[in-house]
C-alpha cells in the first residue's frame, strides 16, 4: 500500500550486512536537551533540524532509526516527524525507520493507527502493545511490506509488574513475556512480518526469548542510559548468524553533547557503539 | 497544571447526578460514515463540524465524551481534536472529556504522552495500557486533577489472548485482568485518580472487577455495535449507589443516521440509550 520500499525484514537483513551494524539509533527529541541555537527555535523546526543532523551524522553506523512519536506529539510536531522520515528515506534509503508508538486498540481503531503509522508517517515498521490480543495487531499486518514489532519484555522498572508474572498454559507455568514470545512466533507471525521488543536489563530473559522465536529480529532497548550489559546482551540475543538484533541507543548517542558539535559527538558515539558491538559479538 | 477545571473524578460524580446519565458518548469520526456534505470537506474541518454537532446534540444525555485519537491522527486532524475538546469544555463545561489513547511506555516517554493528553489536548482523563507496569502510568498521575483510566478487560475478541490467562499470585491463581484490577485498586490508585476499562462482553467479569475495586469508576465499552447485554452489564457494574459506570456507546449513536439529520438521530439514540440505562438500573 502506497510504498515502493522493500519489505521491512529484508531491509533490516540488508542493513545488518551492508552497514556492518546492529545499532538502532533512537530519536527522542527533547527540546530541553538540545544545543542553545535549536532550543530557541519553534519546536517544529528544532525537531526537524535536530533529527536531520542526527540522522545524517549517525547513518554510517546504524542498521535502523527509531523516532519516538510521543516526543513529537507532545509539542504539536507531527509534521516534523513526517518530514524527518521522508528525509531519511530519501537520503538514507537503505536504513529502515521504525515508528516507536506502542499502540494497542480494538481492530477498527487499530486500523486507524495503522493508517497513521504506515500511510501518514510512512514508517517501515511500528511498535505495538500485545495486551489487547491478536485482533489489535492484525490490522498492521495487512500492510504486507511493513514490520510489526510487538512488546514482549520491557526494560523499565515496572516491566516486571505484568510481564514477569507466571501464567498457566496447558498446565505449564511460564512468565507472561515468554508466552507473548510463543504467541507471536507460533501464531501472530504467519506472514513473517513480526519482531519483538526485549529489554537489555535481563540478558537471561533475552536468551529465553531467542530460544523461543528462532531467527526473529529482536529490538533491544536498555543499553546506554538505561544501563544494560552489552556483552551479555549480545551473547544472549544474537542469532546463529551473528545478527538478529537491533541494539537501540537513544540518549547516549543523540545527547552525547549539547553544544554546537552535537552531531559530530553523536556520530562518534554511534561509531564507538557499533565498533564495541562488533568487537563483542 | 494549566487547568481550571475540577478534578476528573469529581466532574464525573457531578455529571452522573446532574445529568442523570451513565452514558459516555464515544467520538470515533470516520469520514466514510459521515453525511455527504461532510464527506466532501477536508478531513480536518469535517471532523470538527461532525464532532461539534454530535457533542451539542448528545450533551443533554451524556455523563462524558470520549474522542478516540487514532481517528484524528490517521488523517492529520489533531488540531480538530484539540478544538473539539476546547469547544466541549466551553459549551458543556460540566461534562468531562476522556481522551481515548491507550498509551503505554517507559516513564520518560510516558511523561511526553501525558503532556500530549493533558497540556496539548487538555483532556480531563486519558486511557492507558498497563502492560509496561506502574512507572508507565505514574507520569499521568502527576497531573493531580486528571483521571487515568487503565485497560483491564477489553471487549474485543483478542481481549482473552492475554487478559484471561491465569496468573499465579502468591500461590493463588487468577485471571490477569483481575490482577490488574487488584494492582490498580490497591497500589496504583493511591491518589484516587484511577478508573478501569472493562468491556461489556462478559458481565460476569465486570462483577468480579466491581468486587475487587469497590467504588472505582468503570468505563464499559462494548454495548451497541459490539453487542454487549445492557441489563446484565448494569447489574454487574453499578456500585452500591447506582452509579460508578460510564456505559460507552460510539457507533450506535454517532452513526445512528448518515443523512443530514445525523445530529438529531444521534440525540435520539443517546436519549433512548440513557432512558434504557436508567430503566434497567
TrEMBL record, chains A, B:
Keywords: Decarboxylase, Lyase, Pyrimidine biosynthesis. Pathway: Pyrimidine metabolism; UMP biosynthesis via de novo pathway; UMP from orotate: step 2/2. It comes from the Bacteria. The active site is at residue 102. Gene3D superfamilies: Aldolase class I. GO terms for molecular function: orotidine-5'-phosphate decarboxylase activity. GO terms for biological process: 'de novo' pyrimidine nucleobase biosynthetic process; 'de novo' UMP biosynthetic process. Residues 22-266 form the Orotidine 5'-phosphate decarboxylase domain. Pfam families: OMPdecase. The keyword Lyase applies. It is an enzyme of class 4 (lyase). Belongs to the OMP decarboxylase family. Type 2 subfamily. This is Orotidine 5'-phosphate decarboxylase.
